[in-house]
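Weekly modeling sync, notes
Attendees: S.R. (lead), two postdocs, one rotation student

Agenda item 3: backlog of single-chain predictions. S.R. asked that every request posted to the team notebook include the full sequence so nobody has to chase files. The rotation student volunteered to paste the first one in as an example of the format we agreed on. Action items at the bottom.

Example entry:
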Amino acid sequence: MVRPQLEYACTVWDPHYKKDINALDRVQRRAARYVTNRFHNTSSVTEMLNGLGWESLQNRRIKFKLCMAYNAIHNNCAFPIHNYIQFSDSNTRHSHPFSVLIPYARVDVYKFSFIPSFGIHWNTLPVSVVTAPTLDQFKVGLRNLQF
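Predicted structure, as returned to the notebook:
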């Protein structure tokens, strides 16, 4: 019930200050205590989260952002991302056919917005994930990646 409230429109508002990220993570950590019914201060919340199979909210926000980018790049949504990004022409060992140039951002408001921030993680994805033919296969490729 709570996670959808925390993740609503997270591709747009993804926080970048550590204090804001920690505030959101505290909600999930508190929920893990309730779900496992372990409230003692010596109980490891990290072990609870691993036992429940819950990944961090920050990791989930990055994956949502990458799924949005995948849809936009492959013209599966109405967002005209091709007006805002440029694909890289350079071919290196670590690049893939959909590598993007990360635009210069002078102010944090733009630097941590969707366009500049997705490219950092997008360019590190393996070729097999980025060239997935469907969104479902893209999500499967993202499943085991940690950011």
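Discussion: group reviewed the output briefly. The first helix runs from residue 3 to 7.
Action items: rotation student to repeat for the remaining queue; S.R. to check formatting next week.
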